[in-house]
Amino acid sequence: MWAGASLIGLYAAMGMTRASAPPAVNEVFGWSWVAVGLAAGAWLGMHFQKPDFLGGYQSYPRRLVRLGHIACVALGLMNVLFAHSAARCLATGAAAASGTPSRIAAAAWLLIVGAITMPLCCGLTAWRPALKPAFVVPVATLLTGVILTALEVAAR
Description:
By secondary structure, the chain is an all-alpha fold. It has helices at residues 2-13, 24-45, 60-91, 95-98, 100-127, 136-155.
């Protein structure tokens, strides 16, 4: 909570109102998730030279674990980009009349949930391939969040 509050203070010092500041939670989460992805990549990198690590280079579990660590980085950056797109949408004068704040809030949480559940599903499916249907959760949340964001950006 402190990091989000300090970002709002930073935006205020830059002359931005609370309504025009990017959703601080997505920005803080995004950069944190990038760090998690890089740390996971570093851990994977310490073991990649072992030929049988996670079943070998081409094994299904190893590919899914690699996908999970890249998903952390990519979806973290998506949350950072969302924070800045949301700020532009919220800064327009017609934002309150169009329902933008509630759509932006929904998209913000959908993108966070999708970013958390995608690498989680990758890891769980690497462990138990029968859990592959769980991917519907991150795919649906991310797709819905992106569509809501695209509609708001296009309406601006």
